[in-house]
Every structure is written in structure tokens, then in C-alpha cells.
Design goal:
Blueprint lengths: L3 H8 L3 E2 L2 E5 L6 E7 L3 E6 L8 H14 L5 E6 L12 H9 L2 E2 L26 E5 L7 E6 L5 E5 L3
Parallel strand pairs: 4-5, 6-9
Antiparallel strand pairs: 1-2, 3-4, 7-8, 8-9
The site of zinc ion (ZN) has 8 residues, from loops.
Length: 160
């Protein structure tokens, strides 16, 4: 019988299509893995942002990856039982975001304030002399900032 740990390990192979280095596990969006009798796998996943177009891609990538394992079937249930927030990104996930030159969402206590979008540390030169250009980046999950020190625009993974 296949273990839940083996499923979790395999899920590290499934990456967020928008940030190719980071796995769905490190994004914190996998909220449950259950292996039932006869090796049928149920996975729960919570979308990062409502209507995030990457959700369907990730869901089908998860199904493909798990189907390669000795399982009788796999079902990925996308639900909001657990509301995702940016604190759920793992330590490793935060490192990978930094490596990909994203500014990180500050860890918060459940309240997101506008200050979390201002004077964000530039991932290129680490200056905090930056300004928010638009809270709406190429995807809903990202904000764009401009660094007054190195004159580069950079993206922040938004705190939610
Ligand atoms: Zn800079």
C-alpha cells in the first residue's frame, strides 16, 4: 500500500506554473492527502487567489504526477475549506521566491495592512527605498514595485 508520505513527496515534483521553481507543497496550497482502501488517493487543494488561472493547470499536473504511482486512482478536490494565506508558504518556499527575485509577503498575524505593500525590500539591492507601482501585477498574486536605489521594477508576492 502506498503511504501518504510518498504522495506528499511526489507532490514536491509539481510546480507552480507561474513560479517554476516552487512546488505546490511549498506554496502551502495542499491542505490534505488521504489514501483510502485500494490505494485511491484524495488530495485537497485550496486556491491561492479566487479565480487564479493556474489552479486548473496545477490540478491536472497533480493528477498526472500521482497517476504515475502505483495507485488505483486520484481525485484532486479544489475547495475553500482552508482559506489560503501567504503565511502558509513554507520556509523553503520563501527561499525559492527570493531566489526567483520576488519580494516576499511579510508574515502577518491575520491582518494585512497597506504598509505591507510599501517600502518593500528590493530583492536585487536590498534597499527599502522603493515604491509601490501597482498592486496589480501580471497575475492577481503579485504587486509591482519600483526601486529608487537601483532603478529596477520588481514583483512582490502579495500578502493575503
Ligand atoms: Zn534595488
Amino acid at each position: 500500500m502506498i503511504s501518504e508520505k510518498e504522495i506528499w513527496d511526489a507532490l514536491y515534483d509539481v510546480k507552480d506554473p507561474e513560479i517554476p521553481k516552487i512546488s505546490v507543497v511549498d506554496m502551502g496550497i495542499i491542505t490534505g492527502v488521504k489514501v483510502s482502501e485500494k490505494d485511491f488517493v484524495n488530495i485537497s487543494m485550496t486556491p491561492t487567489f479566487a479565480g487564479c488561472p493556474a489552479v486548473n493547470v496545477m490540478r491536472s499536473d497533480i493528477e498526472k504526477r500521482i497517476s504515475l504511482m502505483p495507485v488505483s486512482g486520484v481525485n484532486v478536490d479544489v475547495n475553500y475549506d482552508v482559506q489560503w494565506n501567504s503565511n502558509m508558504i513554507t520556509e523553503k518556499g520563501r527561499e525559492l521566491l527570493k531566489d526567483s527575485l520576488f519580494a516576499l509577503p511579510p508574515v502577518h498575524n491575520g491582518f494585512v495592512s497597506i504598509e505591507m505593500l510599501t517600502n518593500i525590500e528590493c530583492p536585487l539591492c536590498h534597499s527599502k527605498n522603493t515604491k509601490l507601482q501597482t498592486p496589480f501585477g501580471p497575475t492577481q498574486c503579485r504587486a509591482i514595485h519600483y526601486c529608487n536605489n537601483c532603478f529596477q521594477a520588481f514583483e512582490q508576492f502579495k500578502p493575503v
